[in-house]
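#struct-help
A.M.: can someone run this one for me? Single chain, 222 residues.
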Amino acid sequence: MNSLYNHALKQVNALQRDLEKFQSGEDTSVAVQGQIAATLNAFKRSIDDYDAMAKKEMINDKREKAFARVSKFREDYDTINRSFALLKSREEQLSNARNRSQLLERRQSRASVAVEHPYQATSASPYLQQAHAIRERDFAQRTGAQLDDMLNQGKAALDDLFHQRTTLKSTQRKMLDAANTLGLSRNVIQLIERRSTEDKWIFYTGVVITLLAMWAIVHYLT
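D.P.: on it. Structure tokens below:
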């Protein structure tokens, strides 16, 4: 339980750090927004896992302490989630205002050129080129946002895999200690160790697949 508790604390610290950057305007990119969203989802899963482990705790004092930690984590999650939603809405409004301002400036610029050269032959080509450039920019931004989301999801998946490996190692150690205490046969202990080895290979396979997927996204889509 301690390893899971420390993992959740690291997630809270990371969320608060990224949220401060977002709020101060130091980094308002789509990448940091996607990272905050991915870490929030991973933090929520950690809270649920810790809550499930707390319910299985046999010692009353430790169980009550774990429940208090779960309550504090849920409060932190709600506070960070609300703050992130408000900041994200504010950033979207500012972005829309900037886009409207830029569009108005372009229209005023074209009107000024038309007044200065009333007899110059007009052509739709520059306007079409500008519209095409705007569409390409919007497409690139959407594509970049989607790539950032994919990479953040891959990072969250890796974090979950490492977290699950830590939990499995802790569980195996407790099972072996319990088996030795109860005097179970060597065959039972070997069965536990063999299952742990299988879980380890599953973990490494998941890490390799996730890393390959992230490499393919960066290599072929950027």
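A.M.: thanks! The chain is about 90% helix and 0% strand.
D.P.: also worth noting: The CA atoms of residues 161 and 204 lie 9 Å apart.
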